[in-house]
Amino acid sequence: MPARSFYPAYFKSAALIGIALFALLCLLLLSLPDHWQQTLNYQINPVRQGQLWRLLTANLLHTNLWHLLLNLAGLSLLLLLHQQHFQSRLYLLWLLVAGVLTNALLLLLFPELDLLVGLSGALHAMVVLGALADICQKDKTGWLLVALVLAKVSYEQLFGPDPELSQLIAAQVAVDAHLAGVFAGALLFPVWWLRKKGRSNDLPSS
């Protein structure tokens, strides 16, 4: 049976509950007063001054409801594509680690980006991580996903973000976060591989 046709009930239930709770948290944060959100978003100077929680919490904030819905749709799609590579209870943890790593890379590689909210960088990281996991398991669609992501971020770096998308989310699309997410996904792949290898070694043999 092909990997993607197998969607265990326990994973589906856990994943749906996790996404629902995650969406609720993001929606609650979206309703916070602006001055509270200012203490949680990614701002380079406060992060440099030690407010490291922003590397995490910025992923949970969004500019408007459209921004949140687009990110949740992307998250749901990635879960459908790559659920076979992750334990259900850990998928959102991988996502948040990817978000923190992406924002840390932004701090190092793109210091001119001084303000950021949203999950798009983390989602790009998870696309790359899932695609590399596909390749590791001899699934050729992984190569296609890698090529598509590289083409997308290259286009964005050359020509800038989609103006219609910027208008929809009421903010400039942070294309540098997408590129940093690609790097983050590649850096997380060895961690995923070592975990997979460790879990395989723990399986009983006959």
UniProtKB/TrEMBL annotation:
Ranges of residues in domain Peptidase S54 rhomboid: 49-189
InterPro entries reported for this sequence: Peptidase_S54_rhomboid_dom, Rhom-like_SP_proteobac, Rhomboid-like_sf, Rhomboid_protease_S54
NCBIfam families, alphabetized: rhom_GG_sort (TIGR03902)
Record bears the keyword Heme: no
Pfam families named among the record's database cross-references: Rhomboid (PF01694)
Compartments it resides in: Membrane
Keyword entries, A-Z: Hydrolase, Membrane, Transmembrane, Transmembrane helix
Enzyme class: hydrolase
Transmembrane spans: 65-81, 90-110, 116-135, 142-159, 171-194
Predominant subcellular localization, coarse grouping: membrane
Membrane topology (UniProt): Multi-pass membrane protein
Source species of the chain: Alkalimonas delamerensis
Name of the protein described by the UniProt record: Rhombosortase
Coiled coil region boundaries: none
Keyword set includes Membrane: yes
Gene3D superfamilies: Rhomboid-like
EC number: 3.4.21.-
GO MF assignments: hydrolase activity
